[in-house]
Structures are given as structure tokens and as C-alpha cells.
Amino acid sequence: MSLNVRNTTASAFAQIVYDIGFDVIELHSSAFESTDAGYLRDLKKDLARKGLPLGYIGVSNNFGRPVAEHPEQVALIKQWIDIAAFMSCPLVRVFAAYVPEDCDDEETLWPPMIEAFKEVAEYGYESGILVGLQNHNHNNVTRDGAAVLRALNETDHPYFTHILDTGQFAGSPGASGHRGSSHPGYDCYASIEQTAPHAVYVRTKFYQIDSGVEEWLDYPRVLEILRGVDYNGCLSIVYEDSQMEKRRILMLDINPKYLVNTKGRKTAVVLSMKEYRLLMKHLEDLEDILEMDAAVETETASRDYREIRAELKKEGKL
């Protein structure tokens, strides 16, 4: 489970995930406040006490950089493979190559990228850590299923695998580079079908859910594809609402429960739709919040949701 919480520490995010009741947590490398052994031990203990396995650690590398900079990118990935091993995390996420603006032929990016993949995959193998390629962004060389399969086949290493991002194949309205509109000539669902058999981890993106149902992606279709290949791994919930910075109330359709973050407070809870509606009746200025009135940005909820929920249960309304 992940949210756009760039200013939230790994421990604080773990508390959110624990409060919601999810089974697994994933962390980007930037969420770690330190790479010192003492900090990592404390974080590992905290996750264990919360019963939260670390699904993967995300690294934001770019093998579209000049080849002279690839050793630095490889070293970054290796560093986080070492940390993943320390944290008992089985998987490190990597990206492929973002095509530079001055690149006339992106085919030239492939050979050095594949060599780098082979090197980090072998390093991961030595530590027992899988390296997972995540499809991401229309401007990435692995923008569609065929390109992901090519990368997997050319790397040809048992510890180089695939992290499937449902919203970041070209053709998806959520993919970076064509946000909110489909990319002509690409079918994101065809790409999902191509790569799903190779996925060890799936990131499910949510973009437009004001209606209570994700509108940009067809999740019944996506889930049918995953069932068809007997996928039995994590389904990571990644909420990337295009209006996230403005909203004070955030909701996720999680069959059929909702994540609620009220009035900008760093609190979260899983509610049924009935609970959600009752809770909203007890929050002040709901109309202003829904209208994304800038005036409420500095306000805080007058009462904590746990207090309100307890009262509703006591009254027999839940």
C-alpha cells in the first residue's frame, strides 16, 4: 500500500498502513531516514511488531543517463539490495531507461541498460534478492508489454523479474506523459496480458474514484487477467489522485471499504460506506471540504475519527 506521502517517515507510514489493516507495506528508498544499521534495525523491529512484511523497496534509477553515469546507478541499486537483504525484503524495484530529449535513437539505450540489469540481477542473486523491473512512464523504453518482455528476455537472469504497474503502460490515462488521456496506438490492457505471467508483484493504480469506482482503469478486466495467469502475489494499492494536493478527503474503493484522511490530519481508517456516511455527518465544514476551499487548508478536524466512531458504535449505529 502506498500514498503520496513524500513528507512522511517510514515509521509514520507504517502506522498508517497498520491502522488501515493492510497485509504488506512497500517503501521507496527516499522514505528511509537513514541507512545506518541502528535505524534499519529499529525500523525492521517496528514492522515486525506491526506484522507488516516489507513487499519491496523502490529505487528510482535511470539507465537513460549517459553511460559514464551507469556505474553510479548500478551502485545505488546494489546499495538497496544490501539493505533489502538486511530488512528481509525479497524484492528491489528498478526502472529502465528514460529517453533523453536529445536522443535520436532510443535503441542505443538498450545494450548498456541490459548490461546494467545483468550486473544488478547477479548481485541480487548472490544476496537472495530479486530485482524487479517496473513498467513506468510513456517516455521510458519499457513503455509497453513487448518492451518489458524484451528486457526480461535479453537480461535472461533468474533473479531479474517484473513488477507490473497497472496504470503506467502506454495507453493508460494514468501513465506519466499523457496524464488523463490515452496514448494513441497503445493498448495498456494488451500490455498487462503480455506481462502478467511474469509478474511477482502488482501495483494497482487508482486515479479517479469520486464515483466510488475507479474510472480511468477497468479493474474487473485487470483482475480477470491476473486470475487467468493464477497470480497469487501482492496487490499494492497506489493512490495517485490528480487533485490529491487540493483534497482534504481521500477515498479508496477497497472492496467495499474506504480509506479516509480527514481534513489533512495524518490519520487514516478503513470504513464501510455506512460508517463513512455517518462519520461525515459529524465532521464540520464538510461542504467546504468537498469544494476544496483553500480556506480549510490550515484547519484541523475538531474531533478525532476514533472518538466519533466509538460514540457511533456505543449508540448502536454501527
Automatic annotation (TrEMBL):
SUPFAM superfamilies xrefs:
Xylose isomerase-like (SSF51658)
State what protein this is by name. Answer: Xylose isomerase-like TIM barrel domain-containing protein
Xylose isomerase-like TIM barrel domain: residues covered: 16-243
Q: Which InterPro entries match?
A: IolE/XylAMocC-like, Xyl_isomerase-like_sf, Xyl_isomerase-like_TIM-brl
Looking at the UniProt entry, the stretches that span the membrane are none
Name its species. Geodia barretti
Listed Pfam families: AP_endonuc_2
Top-level lineage group? Eukaryota
